[in-house]
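A quick aside before the break. I want you to see a complete sequence-to-structure record at least once, exactly as it would be stored in a machine-readable document. Don't worry about memorizing anything.
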Amino acid sequence: MSGDDQQPDFFDQNVGSSLPPPQSIAESITEIKTFALYNFTQEAATKQLYYHNHEHIQNVQRRSQQIFQAIADYHPEIDRSRTELLLDLCVVAHDMVQVFAQNSQQNTARKRDTGVSEMATIEQILQYIHQLNSRLDADSSARLTEADIDIIRESIEATICVYDPIEQAIYQPSLQNGRSLSIVARILALADLGALGIDGIEVYNEEGSLIFLEENLDVVPLLMDGSIHQLKTNSALHENIRHRLLRRSRFQVHFAKSRLARFDREIQEFSSDAIPILKEIFKHLTPENIQIISTMTPTDEAVSLADLLQFFQLERYLRSP
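That is the input. The structure line, written in tokens, reads:
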């Protein structure tokens, strides 16, 4: 959304009753997406979100559409038009709220507690949907049904990640525990973590750099004025930043390995005809690419701050989030 795309002030938690009621489910979805994008824009600006911003939404939209268009015909049980509308809404809304845990310590990464942002997003989106439905007649085709609402809730929940201390990586438990999920939830979850598999190593590493910036805002001023390159070797701040970058680089390797190891389980609930197509879409998720990532990523305990900065190329991404 550009700076010229100013949204009207009614897109807050109090829906303006003077809004014209939607005449179709497509119009309802469009209104909810507008609400979500408006709030998402505020989050990205006020919380300096280098990763969770409009570019991320566009990437997840592209990946989710690639998956949906390729496999929808192999799932005749779905209402294709309505499913596609719900998928697009869930993609746009799934990161609408970003809640960071309180942190009073200096020179540390900010963190999100597991599931808090997603549940806050669900609460706000469902509140808006209920208010929208209240403006419509009970038999209006523009209303979102309870089934629609269940899909939206479980789809955003499916993007919740937890940390596996053995793999030293995050994963989405909803795709692992045999739950019967909608196709919308499965596609959204796969697309959300699909950078490596669908887009390849370069995009995967770029996302890692953006996430580091988003979680380590104290490093941004040092990058912007170049003083990070003049930090005295072995000084407290030099070592602090070096160790944070080293943790991120090691995570990049562990996460790549985890994505490959978990992929077959994550797609097993799709139709048998869709599974080979999904493997082709995620064509970069190969042992060869995991080995390339392992080789190219600096993970040695003694790696220098200069080498880590060269690898992550953080200055490239210092545009306004």
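Two observations worth writing down. The chain is about 55% helix and 0% strand. The radius of gyration is 21 Å. We'll return to this after the break.
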